[in-house]
Design goal:
Elements lengths: L1 H18 L3 H4 L7 E5 L7 H15 L4 H24 L1 E5 L2 E6 L5 E6 L3 E7 L2 H6 L1 E8 L2 E2 L3 E5 L1 H17 L1
């Protein structure tokens, strides 16, 4: 009993330590701590859901199985792409820098120190405001970057950066 508990704890520890670490966690510099961790919003799964529902409509309302199957195959394809995009994306604020990586095949990223960030703009649609997601654009020393789209809690991200800038300015 005690042996199986120790084995389970060791297995759990191994999984969290070895396979579950993010890119940011693996690349922290001495003294650096993650203060905010986010990712894409679940809205990235909306296209697969729409295709899935379209397939249901084809079956229930029109009894057209061929189009339903086609819609479900498309839904599965988009679901896999959305899941990979969701899992592979990281939005990290540490006490020293930010790291944003979004995308899978086509990847956008920024990694810059807190001191170099001049502004962070947030853009939200009406749906984004309701569901708490939006686009963020980070500017560092005057150069604006392309926006990072469909990010969860964008104002929380900006607040985390501003808090770290405030802490850094007091040192």
């Amino acid at each position: 009993s005690h042996n199986s508990e120790a084995s389970s704890e060791l297995r759990s520890s191994f999984l969290t330590e070895k396979t579950m670490k993010t890119y940011a966690e693996k690349n922290l510099i001495p003294g650096e701590k993650i203060v905010y961790a986010g990712h894409r919003h679940w809205i990235v799964f909306m296209a697969p859901v729409i295709w899935l529902l379209l397939g249901v409509i084809f079956v229930v309302e029109l009894n057209v199985w061929l189009f339903a199957m086609l819609a479900w195959i498309i839904a599965a394809f988009y679901a896999v792409l959305a899941w990979i995009d969701y899992v592979m994306s990281e939005i990290i604020v540490t006490n020293m820098r930010i790291l944003i990586k979004v995308g899978w095949l086509s990847r956008d990223s920024i990694e810059t120190t807190i001191a170099n960030i001049s502004s962070i703009s947030v853009r939200q649609t009406i749906l984004g405001r309701f569901l708490n997601y939006g686009s963020i654009t980070v500017s560092d020393r005057g150069s604006a970057r392309a926006p990072f789209l469909r990010i969860q809690r964008p104002f929380k991200f900006r607040q985390a950066v501003q808090e770290q800038q405030e802490r850094a300015s007091k040192k």
